[in-house]
């Protein structure tokens, strides 16, 4: 089966070219060149991200880019996955915080699963991250498990993949165009009884002082918690069969 790797890119000019080249080198060394593509999904950047994405697509036949004017992680991933003909749909954060060695493992786990997600909170995961971010991540995931009655450990990890048929079952019911996309995706997958597998990963926070993540933890956290309750109400009205 062929697969597509989407890289959401919002103001990523400082790291985009280097990291896409690292990803391409890994894919070329580990997979047949006819089996994959990389999609740079740029959305409303104020720096040179779009210019760099265009150049990468022009010089690499397995790279294509999408330009979506409106910012929003969920929006760009949804559009990238809807535009792909691949059998397996994956997304990774642009900073490549997840060790690339886990890509083959994700694909292997999808052989008998519908959706595979990176788990930074597993006992065997090796994670380099600030204590503050780790604390808020654990707090949010605890809230998600309690409110949504989820069994999953790490809802918001930026490393997920699923089969195209699973995506087609979920995507008509997705509403989020923001960071809540991850949680909504998994909640719908659980609601429809899809087989979800959690993959322990090595994860390293790579944002430098001049290129910190634009996620404002407190503000985003409040938004996510509010959306958890709204999602819980929506799931209660949704049939179990899609």
From TrEMBL:
<protein>
    <submittedName>
        <fullName>Glycosyl transferase family protein</fullName>
    </submittedName>
</protein>
<feature type="domain" description="Glycosyltransferase 2-like">
    <location>
        <begin position="4"/>
        <end position="169"/>
    </location>
</feature>
<dbReference type="InterPro" id="IPR029044">
    <property type="entry name" value="Nucleotide-diphossugar_trans"/>
</dbReference>
<dbReference type="InterPro" id="IPR001173">
    <property type="entry name" value="Glyco_trans_2-like"/>
</dbReference>
<dbReference type="Pfam" id="PF00535">
    <property type="entry name" value="Glycos_transf_2"/>
</dbReference>
<keyword id="KW-0808">Transferase</keyword>
<dbReference type="GO" id="GO:0006487">
    <property type="term" value="P:protein N-linked glycosylation"/>
</dbReference>
<dbReference type="GO" id="GO:0016740">
    <property type="term" value="F:transferase activity"/>
</dbReference>
């Amino acid at each position: 089966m062929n697969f597509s790797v989407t890289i959401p890119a919002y103001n990523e000019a400082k790291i985009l070219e280097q990291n896409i080249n690292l990803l391409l080198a890994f894919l070329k060394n580990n997979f047949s060149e006819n089996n994959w593509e990389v999609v740079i999904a740029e959305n409303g950047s104020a720096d040179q991200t779009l210019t760099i994405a265009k150049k990468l697509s022009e010089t690499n036949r397995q790279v294509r880019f999408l330009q979506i004017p409106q910012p929003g992680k969920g929006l760009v991933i949804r559009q990238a996955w809807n535009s792909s003909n691949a059998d397996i749909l994956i997304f990774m954060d642009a900073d490549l915080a997840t060790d690339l060695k886990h890509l083959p493992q994700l694909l292997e786990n999808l052989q008998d699963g519908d959706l595979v997600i990176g788990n930074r909170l597993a006992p065997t995961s090796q994670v380099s991250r600030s204590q503050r971010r780790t604390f808020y991540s654990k707090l949010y995931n605890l809230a998600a498990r309690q409110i949504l009655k989820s069994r999953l450990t790490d809802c918001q990890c930026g490393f997920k993949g699923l089969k195209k048929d699973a995506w087609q079952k979920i995507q008509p019911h997705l509403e989020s165009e923001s960071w809540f996309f991850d949680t909504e995706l998994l909640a719908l997958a659980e609601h429809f009884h899809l087989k979800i597998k959690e993959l322990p990963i090595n994860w390293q926070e790579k944002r430098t002082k001049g290129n910190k993540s634009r996620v404002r933890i407190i503000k985003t956290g409040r938004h996510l918690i509010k959306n958890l309750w709204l999602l819980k109400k929506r799931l209660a009205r949704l049939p179990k069969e899609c």
